[in-house]
């Protein structure tokens, strides 16, 4: 594995030094830290595998011009719909989706659609029955509608602030 980002290299070196220092100072805490890390990794790995599969399929099937048309400047309502619905349907921790979003952004995905995707992740379909149970239908519908509206507004604001 080649790390091209110098900041990432420094961060990896720092973490390695911290773990080695921890192992030298208190090996039991080091083992517990490694245990927590492996549990976290086992939880994230299936989602990461799914994202990598999606990225691979996108790289095979979606050419840069198609990505630009679907998610680029002229994507219009289709791009917004794709970003918001994709955000709602995505699962797992958001940082697992960062590589896919970064690849799509390099292919021409608008910053506004990246922001809308991440904001729309707050809507979790499996949690809607719980929201209804605890807060009622009115709150749930209004809350979900606000999340949808603000995902788009947030996207527009991000695009205006980042204009690249």
From TrEMBL:
Gene Ontology annotations for the cellular component aspect, listed alphabetically: plasma membrane
Entry membrane topology: Multi-pass membrane protein
Transmembrane spans: 12-34, 40-60, 80-98, 134-158
Primary site of residence: membrane
Pfam families in UniProt: ArsP_1
Location of the protein in the cell: Cell membrane
Keywords on record: Cell membrane, Membrane, Transmembrane, Transmembrane helix
Stated family: Belongs to the UPF0718 family.
Name used for this protein in its record: Permease
